[in-house]
Hints:
Strand content: 15-25%
Order of helices and strands: EHHEEHEHEHEHEHEH
Amino acid sequence: MTLPFSQPSPAQDFDAAAYCSTRQAAALLGVSHRTVQLWVESGTLEAWKTAGGHRRIAIASITRHVERRRQAMANRSAPARYKVLLVDDDAAMLALYESAMAGWDLPVDVVRAGNGFDALIRIGETRPHLLVGDLSMPGVDGLRMIRTLRASVGYRDMAIVVISGLDPATIRAMGLPDDIPVLSKPVAPDALRDAVEAALHGEALTER
């Protein structure tokens, strides 16, 4: 459960030694600064914000996260490479995402799909570890695609990242699950990498 982003009152029993900065958490976890921010926003790590707007991460939650990852790795072998399914009806955007990923030092192989229906077929064929997709697409749109996956026993835990040009209020009104991160289109390559890296390190990722 994520702690409120507010400064503890003097009445609270606050132990500064039990918390660290976002950059210190990133060093402890071996991930980027932005990845820690995404984990805080999703509730994976517990944190609060100082009056100056700086996050303080609970060291206990970092320890729990490391232990969960250690246990998960003990129960299964990590794949040599990860399969990422890119879904967008704009072929130029797909090419842009794929080109960006090709330059990363991550063990990622890309599969493409032009709409939600095509994506569901590709998922059955390739069983990807992560789906990165748009919401506004002809035919089976991104939201219907996600709802179909969440209703499936085999794919309800698939890691998903949404890239959308819709405004946040519209996306909330559509009913997109709260645990799915959303990047604004057009997305910067660094932001895309941070989101993909966070998803590949997250507990929702399962070997297929």
